[in-house]
Amino acid sequence: MPEKRIVRLFCKRCQKWYEELLDPSELDLSPVGVFSVAFDHGDHVLTVFLDEQFAIRGDNVADKVAEDSQDEKSRALEYFEKY
Ligand SMILES: [Zn+2]
Q: Of 6, 34, 76, 83, which alpha carbon lies 20 to 30 A from 68's?
C-alpha cells in the first residue's frame, strides 16, 4: 500500500504555503506518472501537478465563477426580454 504523503504547496493567489495530506490510494494516478490535484480556496482553485515521487511539477490558479455574478447575468437577461 502506498503511504500518505504531506505535500507543501504555495498558492500564488493567496501568497501562502499550504500543507496537504495526500492519500495515493484516493488519487487517480495516470500512466505517465504525473497527476493533478485541485484545492478549493474559496474564490479560486489551486491545481498542482505532481509526479509519482510527489514532487511538484507545476501549478495553476483558476478563478471560480461566483454565485452573485451569475445572478447579475440572469437579471440582465430579464431586462433585455422586456424590450
Ligand atoms: Zn489560494
A: 83
Cα 29 to ligand 1 centre (Å): 24
Distance 19 CA to ligand 1 centre (A): 12
Q: How many domains is the chain built from?
A: 1
CA 46 to ligand 1 centroid distance, Å:
6
pLDDT in tens, 11-20: 999 999 999 9
Contacts with 39 (C-beta within 8 Å, 6 or more apart), sequence order: 9, 11, 18, 20, 45, 46, 47, 48
Q: What is the pTM of this model?
A: 0.69
Structural domain harbouring 76: 5-81
How does pLDDT run across 34-83, given as a tens digit for each residue? 888 999 999 999 999 998 888 999 999 999 986 665 566 666 667 666 65
